[in-house]
Design brief:
Length: 284
């Protein structure tokens, strides 16, 4: 949006230097080197892709077309964007489609380019065996009996889910005093019927236990959550020794990851189970 003062690095240059440091190149590494490695990798992939408009072209030729003075000596994200635009469906294909879009063309049309009404493409891009959007593939249908059985396996079981609050969307926000002031938000939300069944009072500390771990948190009784489901927020647990966030350390809270079972895997997808964790809750 604004021109940088002389000598001030662009954001992409800062990130590129951090990437270079992470790769062991040291703090004096040139961000331009990381930038060149990135764009050359993208070009190499494109010229090897049989479905790409520049398949079989010289990678050096494409690099020069993107980076040379004739193209404004683009660097960083602008150069990556130019590549992706030019090999895209409306791109100039580096000469294959005269008049196609590029960063240079967009700069000539700051208010955008009208390519007409959207055209349906789903049938041509689908790669399913049936050629249709498969809403109920056989693998999912075959897994339904297991899911039904899990719903009735233990009617008294509680399932733990996570949540985020507007003022603590990410854990670093816990270190800003104006965002963490007010009533505590690291609470175990519980439906009133579950609280009555377990003999738990609002605000009372309870112990939440999974197969692998246990934490203690105050209860927040609310009808905003479904019966048999409890919820702990994401990103807390700053009270442990070694925490370097001074404000967040005062807030504390509990780390819900302690309850995540490393052996709980969804059998169909292979994904880790991070929500819907079976837990037991008791007065602490």
């Amino acid at each position: 949006m604004f021109e940088l003062p002389p000598g001030v690095p662009d954001e992409w240059e800062i990130l590129a230097r951090l990437a270079a440091i992470a790769q062991g190149l040291g703090p004096d590494a040139d961000p331009a080197t990381v930038d060149d490695v990135t764009i050359r990798s993208l070009i190499d992939s494109a010229v090897r892709d049989e479905s790409c408009v520049i398949h079989g072209r010289s990678a050096d030729e494409i690099y020069e077309a993107l980076s040379g003075s004739a193209n404004g000596s683009l660097r960083g994200p602008d150069r990556i964007l130019d590549l992706l635009l030019r090999i895209g469906p409306f791109g100039d294909g580096f000469g294959a489609n005269s008049g196609g879009v590029s960063v240079a063309l967009l700069k000539q049309h700051p208010h955008g380019i009208d390519y007409g009404a959207l055209r349906p493409r789903v049938p041509e891009v689908l790669r399913t065996p049936s050629g249709k959007i498969e809403l109920a593939p056989a693998e999912l249908l075959a897994d339904l009996p297991r899911l039904r059985a899990s719903l009735t396996a233990d009617p008294d079981a509680l399932l733990l889910v996570g949540r985020r609050h507007l003022r603590s969307n990410n854990s670093w926000m816990h270190n800003i005093r104006v965002l963490v002031k007010g009533k505590p938000r690291c609470t175990l939300q519980m439906h009133p019927l579950d609280a009555a069944r377990l003999g738990v009072a609002d605000g009372a500390p309870v112990r939440v236990t999974s197969r692998v771990g246990s934490v203690v948190a105050p209860v927040e009784i609310t009808e905003d959550i479904r019966e048999r489901v409890v919820s702990l927020p994401h990103g807390f647990g700053h009270g442990v020794r070694g925490t370097r966030l001074s404000v967040a350390h005062e807030v504390g809270g509990v780390n819900s990851n302690v309850l995540t079972d490393h052996e709980a895997i969804d059998p169909l997808s292979g994904n880790a189970v991070l929500n819907g964790i079976p837990v037991a809750v008791a007065v602490a």
